Amino acid sequence: MTLQEELQLSKLPPPGVQLMLQLMLTREAVVRVQERLFEAHGLTIQQYNVLRIVRGGPVKGHPIYEIEGRMIYRFANVTRLVDRLEVQGLLKRVADPKDRRVSRVVITPKGRRLMERLDEPVESLSTSITSCCDESECLAMADQLERLREHCQQQDGMPEALVGAVN
């Protein structure tokens, strides 16, 4: 379905707006597919993200603020996510020997086993989702999206002229 059909637009907006709309719609489509996979394993997409970060981190674990900084979906309440994963026995907090005010989050053996069981399905899902593109197209698109993301990060928020136009 085209952008114009999906959003029932009478006319197409400028190319930059089309790109932004396509990015938002594509993100939602990918998330919906991923959510089904993670829900089948008793996780939300945000919980999977936390487990992914902690599993790939140092053996001594990450403090919560480091996990927050590495999150893909940054709107999540990481402390609450860690609490829920801890109740499930997938993560645990350990005291930081250098600073007793800080606790570090480490993955438990149960959490590691779950992530190992998810490795193949996550990779297969990614391959399936991107099967409409060949390897060089995937890499080219990834490079373009990285370039766009870096440009957005350099913008440091909305330009002041636009903020005034919105208010």
UniProtKB/TrEMBL annotation:
The keyword Cell cycle does not apply. Keywords: DNA-binding, Transcription, Transcription regulation. SUPFAM superfamilies: Winged helix' DNA-binding domain. It comes from the Bacteria. SMART domains: HTH_MARR. Residues 16-150 form the HTH marR-type domain. The keyword Kinase does not apply. This is HTH marR-type domain-containing protein. It comes from Geothrix oryzae.
